[in-house]
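Record type: monomer structure entry
Structure origin: computed from sequence
Chain ID: A
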Amino acid sequence: MVTPLLFLTVSAFSTPLLENSSYHQQGNTCFLTVNEERNQQNIVLLLSLSANEEAAVTVFHRQSFEDKSAGLLHQSTTQLDNWYANQDYPVDHRLYKEVDNMAIYATTLSPPNDNATAFIKEFKARGNKTRLDMDGMNTHLFFVADKAQADAFYQCGISVKSLAAIH
């Protein structure tokens, strides 16, 4: 009786309970997708780095915004006692697509591209986690990426830039 219980306990804690982030590469672009902690299927943060030094940050969500409107995204720490300064970024909201009569919106950091680069650097410096607040959205969003997935994303970004510099 003790052996099956011990096996069940060990296996439950040795496997990840929730895989909330993934890294992948498509051509010369690297992507890190992070699901929001509480709304796993409804809100996704997408970070990308490409060979031509471009970075992009997009949040996909179901919060209705006027199509092609602008606003602010506030990036802050997930811990109250952390000394990191909050960052504010201009964003553009747009209707991404409709699936089964359900609208999906995309909120993207506005140019210049160094806004996205700064966001990604802050995300990394804060241990691959962040809290986001958007003007017009009445809830805090928390994103925490798996360390191995995030490290693979950053390494991919370095690799594609190095390969582009050689060619």
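Annotation 1: The radius of gyration is 18 Å.
Annotation 2: Residues 1-17 have pLDDT under 50 and may be disordered.
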